C-alpha cells in the first residue's frame, strides 16, 4: 500500500516537473520570438558588435558569429557595395567556418573564409584577421564579370573554387537574414569595376547592433611609463609567437580607439588583441565575450607575454568583462583604452584589483612569480 502511494506520488511529481519544464521552455521561446535574443544575449548580455547571441532568420547565432557577420556587413557598407555582396560573403563564411575565425582547415586553409596562404590569399597573419579576409574576398568577388546577377552560390563558388560547389546556395537565405539585421540605410547600386574605396569608419559603425560598450573604466594613475611609447631597453619575449603578438601590439601605441576596429588604422580593445595574435598566425575569436574563453586559463602568478587580461571596464561586470588588454612583459599591459585616449601602455598594477580573467594564447606559459611581478616595471 505504501509502495503504491509512493509510486503515485513519484508519477505526479514527474508530471509536475515535466509541465514546469515545458512551461519554461515555451516561455523562453516566446521571449526569443519577441526580442530576437537568446537568453543571456543582447547588448546587456553577452554583447559584442552584433548584439550577442540571437535568433535571426530562424537560426541561432552566438556572440562571435553575430560580431563577425556585423563586421562583414560593415566592410561591405564601407566599400559602397550592395547588399548582395554581403549575402555572398556571409554565405561563404557560414559554409567555410560557421562564421568563426578558425585556425585550421583543409591543408593550409585558415580563418573565416578558409583562405589558403599557399594559394596567394595572403599570409597567415592576414587571412586570420576578419577585416583583411573580408576585403580580399570582396576584391576577388567584384572582379568577376556579372557577379551580382549570378545564380545563388555561383559567385561564391567562382571565388572559392571549392570541391563542394553546391554547399553555398542553401546558405544564402540565412546569410540574407543576417545582412538585413545589420544593414543600415538603403541598398547600394552595383558599382562599375574600380579600385577598392577607402574605408569610412562612420558608415561602417552603422552596422553594429550594440553601441560602444565603454572603455577601460580604470583611471590613468601617475606613472613613469610613457603611455604612448615603448620604454627604452624594453626586451620583447623570445618565443616567436609571443614576440610577434607583443611587437605588433606595441607598434600600435598612439593609434585611435575605434569601436569595432581591427586595424590597421584604429582598434577597439578586443580588435587589437585579435589583430596582434593574427600577426603571429594564431587566430582568436572576436570580442571580449568570446576571447575570455580563448586559449587556456592563467593567473597573475603565471602570466606570460601575450596573455589576455580582462577587467569589467566601464560597462561590464566580473562575470561579463567588457575590456581586455595584452600583457607585454615587464609588468606592463597594452590596450585600446577608450575613444578619447587611444592605444596606450599601462602598468599592470593599475589593473590588479580589477582583473577577472587571464587567458594564455600561445607560447610557453609564465612561471610562478612573487607578487612583486605585478609591481610597476621600471624602464
From TrEMBL:
GO terms for biological process: proteolysis. Pfam families: NLPC_P60. Belongs to the peptidase C40 family. GO terms for molecular function: cysteine-type peptidase activity. PANTHER family: NLP_P60 DOMAIN-CONTAINING PROTEIN-RELATED, PEPTIDOGLYCAN DL-ENDOPEPTIDASE CWLO. It comes from Pseudonocardia ammonioxydans. Residues 239-362 form the NlpC/P60 domain. It comes from the Bacteria. Signal peptide: none annotated. This is Cell wall-associated hydrolase, NlpC family. PROSITE patterns: NLPC_P60. The keyword Protease applies. Keywords: Hydrolase, Protease, Thiol protease.
Amino acid at each position: 500500500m505504501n509502495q503504491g502511494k509512493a509510486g503515485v506520488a513519484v508519477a505526479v511529481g514527474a508530471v509536475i516537473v515535466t509541465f514546469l519544464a515545458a512551461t519554461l521552455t515555451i516561455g523562453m521561446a516566446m521571449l526569443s520570438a519577441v526580442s530576437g535574443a537568446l537568453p543571456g544575449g543582447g547588448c546587456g548580455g553577452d554583447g559584442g558588435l552584433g548584439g550577442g547571441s540571437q535568433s535571426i532568420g530562424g537560426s541561432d547565432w552566438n556572440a562571435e558569429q553575430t560580431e563577425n557577420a556585423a563586421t562583414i556587413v560593415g566592410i561591405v557598407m564601407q566599400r559602397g557595395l550592395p547588399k548582395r555582396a554581403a549575402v555572398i560573403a556571409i554565405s561563404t563564411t557560414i559554409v567555410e567556418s560557421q562564421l568563426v575565425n578558425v585556425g585550421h582547415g583543409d591543408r593550409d586553409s585558415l580563418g573565416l573564409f578558409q583562405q589558403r596562404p599557399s594559394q596567394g590569399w595572403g599570409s597567415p597573419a592576414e587571412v586570420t584577421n576578419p577585416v583583411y579576409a573580408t576585403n580580399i574576398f570582396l576584391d576577388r568577388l567584384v572582379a568577376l564579370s556579372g557577379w551580382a546577377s549570378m545564380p545563388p552560390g555561383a559567385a561564391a563558388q567562382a571565388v572559392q573554387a571549392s570541391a563542394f560547389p553546391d554547399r553555398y546556395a542553401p546558405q544564402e537565405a540565412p546569410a540574407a537574414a543576417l545582412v538585413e539585421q545589420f544593414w543600415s540605410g538603403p541598398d547600394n547600386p552595383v558599382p562599375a569595376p574600380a579600385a577598392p574605396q577607402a574605408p569610412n569608419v562612420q558608415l561602417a559603425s552603422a552596422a553594429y547592433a550594440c553601441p560602444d560598450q565603454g572603455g577601460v573604466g580604470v583611471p590613468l594613475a601617475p606613472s613613469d611609463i610613457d603611455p604612448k611609447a615603448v620604454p627604452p631597453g624594453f626586451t620583447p619575449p623570445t618565443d616567436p609567437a609571443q614576440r610577434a603578438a607583443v611587437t605588433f601590439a606595441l607598434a600600435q601605441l598612439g593609434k585611435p580607439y575605434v569601436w569595432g576596429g581591427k586595424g590597421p588604422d584604429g582598434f577597439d580593445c578586443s580588435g587589437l588583441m585579435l589583430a596582434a595574435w593574427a600577426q603571429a598566425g594564431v587566430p582568436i575569436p572576436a570580442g571580449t565575450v568570446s576571447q575570455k574563453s580563448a586559449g587556456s586559463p592563467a593567473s597573475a602568478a603565471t602570466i606570460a607575454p601575450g596573455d589576455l587580461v580582462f577587467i569589467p571596464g566601464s560597462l561590464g561586470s566580473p562575470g561579463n568583462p567588457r575590456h581586455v588588454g595584452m600583457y607585454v612583459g615587464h609588468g606592463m599591459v597594452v590596450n585600446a583604452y577608450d575613444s578619447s585616449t587611444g592605444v596606450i601602455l599601462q602598468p599592470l598594477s593599475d589593473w590588479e584589483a580589477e582583473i577577472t580573467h587571464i587567458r594564455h594564447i600561445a607560447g610557453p606559459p609564465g612561471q610562478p612569480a612573487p607578487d612583486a611581478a605585478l609591481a610597476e616595471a621600471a624602464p
